[in-house]
Amino acid sequence: MASALFHLFSRAREDELLESQAEQSYGYIPSEAIAIVFLVLFGISTALHTAQAAYYRVWWLLPTAVLCGIGELIGWGARLWSALNNNADMPFTIQISTTIIAPTPLLAASFIIFARVVNQLGQQYSLLPGKYYGWLFVSCDIIALVVQGVGGGIASGADDDLEEANRGAKIMLGGIGFQFAVIVIFSILLTDFLVRFLRDAPWRAPAGSDLFNPTSARPALTRQTKVILAALAFSTTVLFIRSVYRTIELNDGWNGRIIHTQVYFNVLDGGMVVLAIYTWNFVHPGMFLFPRKGARVDSGVHEKGVDTPSSGRSV
Questions:
Q1: In this predicted model, what pLDDT tens digit does every residue of 204-233 receive, in sequence order?
Q2: For the chain, which has fewer Cβ within 10 Å, the N-terminal or C-terminal residue?
Q3: What is the pLDDT of residues 260-301, one digit of tens each?
Q4: CATH fold of the domain at 27-306
């Protein structure tokens, strides 16, 4: 009898120790309910983006918004795995890498959309020509993605090597920091463009004109463009908030209070990305920038060089 009780006590003690070892990774046990909620939200948005990209033939949303959704599904799937199996180490390494990297392609969508807006409203109001927002900022986004991926790979392969894990975290922090700087610069250029457009204070003469006339009339803002600009500002803001959080989180270290507080992650990472990705479901570029043939479009600007629905909306 005493032997049986001792055996049961030993097994209980062993399970307790195993659970505490699993909690060392997160600092908590991920909520199963929260993970399911985010899986449903990202699943719906990703499916919608896939269908909308096909319907409007805006194919560049597949490697941007859809790819973001897939990454978030993998990350939150790993967190659900952790909630169901507290003793598994693998899901933590999966989710830490994917949830850091996943929003990067979505940010690229904002750059592409803004390039289209600049082309429509007038490149003379932008410090940079519209085409540069596409290849320059998307290239920076890819660099940030690669750096974060390398750091995540090093951190996830470190196992119990804390020094190696910290090295991976520092590399990821560098990628996040670089992305943060890109968002700041993009936000400044976006704000400058809007201010100059509203004040009709162009940087240069309009394309095709040899004369610089700072008092020339600006194009009219359509309802669609106003909505797109509001969505662009909102999406950039929430991704900026998320970037600030992840920068502080990684800088605080693996054992910091921020990374060990679940509500911060749920709200400032998961919540912000949900808001950003759903923004482009409701304000879809295919609907507001490239309406299908036969759809009613507000009268306003139509600048030479902007793709029509039949062009396939190539970047």
A1: 766 655 445 555 566 778 888 899 999 999
A2: N
A3: 999 999 999 999 999 999 999 999 999 988 665 544 434 333
A4: Rhopdopsin 7-helix transmembrane proteins (1.20.1070)
Q: Where are the domains of the chain?
A: 27-306
Q: What is the pTM of this model?
A: 0.82
